[in-house]
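dumping the sequnces here before i forget
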Amino acid sequence: MTAGQGATRLVLRAGVLVSAAAFAIAMLLRVAGRAAGDGDAFDPGAVLAACLALDPWGWATLGVFAVIATPVLAIAATGHEHRVAGDRRTALLSLVVLGVLALSLAVALLR
Amino acid sequence: MDGSWPRYACRVPADLVVLVVSLLAGGFGSMVGIGGGLIVVPVLTTLLGYDITVVVPASLVGVIAVSVAAAGPFLDGETVDRPLAIRLLIATAAGGLTGGLIAGFLDARALAVLFAILLVYVAIQMARQVRPRAGAAVADDPAHHERSYVEPVTKRRIGYTPRRLPAGAAIAYLAGNVSGLLGVGGGVINVPVMTLLMDVPMRVATTTSTFMLGATAAASAIVYEAHGRLDPMLAAPVALGVFAGAKLGARLSKRIPPSWLRIAFVALAGWFAVQMTLKALG
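..and the predicted 3d for all of it:
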């Protein structure tokens, strides 16, 4: 608990703001009567197009990816902060955690 | 749930119910470090009629939301043991990945029974720890330990030394699997493992577990998303609810003695064990 925590805090707060905003927009669009479409969540173009078309699915999918990305980035920030603080062991272990998460993404993309 | 929503007249109340349930789950989950899935999954499936195969991935998104929303305030309080979290995360994230992968192959009933038995065991073990041990003040002297934190309620600096890391990591891998399979936070296992096996104080265990839940659930949520089993339109109200609840829970957590949190944990674990058993018995 001696390493700095500023970057990790920033990542967590930004992730909360972005994902909460995306989810809130999706919910407001549904309440306003917009029908939710569907598409390939791993196609950034489709998600972006859905967002621009005010499709609740697009905004909800954006929120899902934002919320999933936040802890991953927080681990990266934690590793960086421990490296700066001289705790190389924790920094290296953070990379191992990121490797496991990258493996999840690889499995997902190889579906 | 087939991905469609109830008719317009019912949509807003249904959304609000999911939001309120998720808010309560997120608040309590962040206080005890177990995430909101323990409440969200059984309530949405048994009371609101959603299919559990859709609820589990949405709940995982809620678990991540609890983690990221509560971890910030916990970092401010400097009670999160991040070096310990990173070490355990290697195991829980790997468990989350395998849990997400095998979710479609395991018998859910058998898993539910095993999980209920585990919860009862954990609840009994935690109940025995509710009263502070005699001589705790001497045992917690920071001078005799490698790590310490300031207890927010008493403002006293408390020392501790995490022990039995390999055994803790092995069980943490199981926790990751349970998280990925059932859509609950691995904290239901991680917190008692840290307090009972690794000699980590309850306060540090709950906040550290909360910090870990996000990356653990992310490993399996990615797999669910890839397999097309994550409905973002259900995940949205669940995540929004737990966002708000976790913020509230993190504030309340600093004002509530750890023993109260432990009692609450015992009550929730017992309740969930009953729910899982009833579900397994059909």
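The longest helix of chain A spans residues 56-84.
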